[in-house]
Amino acid sequence: MIDPIRGLLGQLICGGWIGEDLRDGSDLAFLFLATPGGGALGLPVDEAMGLLAGRLGIDSRPGRVTLTPPTASHVEVRPRDWAALVVDGETVVERPTSPDWIATACAVGRVALGVAYTALPPGVPVEDHTDGPSVLALLTVTDTRR
Length: 146
Hints:
With 146 residues, this protein is of the alpha/beta class. It contains two helices and eight strands, in the order E-E-H-E-E-E-E-H-E-E. The longest helix has 12 residues, at 45-56. It comes from Saccharothrix xinjiangensis.
């Protein structure tokens, strides 16, 4: 089986922000994964990122939303306002966030994770790359700061 999480996927770029939970209008912390390249594993970007979504334990069909948090992956809140995406006990990607992002993630107990199915164009922030084909999932938050 191809395992895109173990570095075979290539470069992953992770953006994060606080946005609106469309279910009730409340604040929700978001993470969004994209890749800048022309594919990895010898596959087009959409196929490689679909494999990544599947490995994360979320529905990999473009446009799908996984509301039940998968058991394979979660988000860890770490010291100094860092967040990490963890799959099967291994850190896939981590990034600095803000105290507000951390507070929102911990208060809600969930983070919305998006996976883009198109390549991130040069110079475009991940936060501005959310309109194309992607999948979205709610992941459980674990606070490891204590």
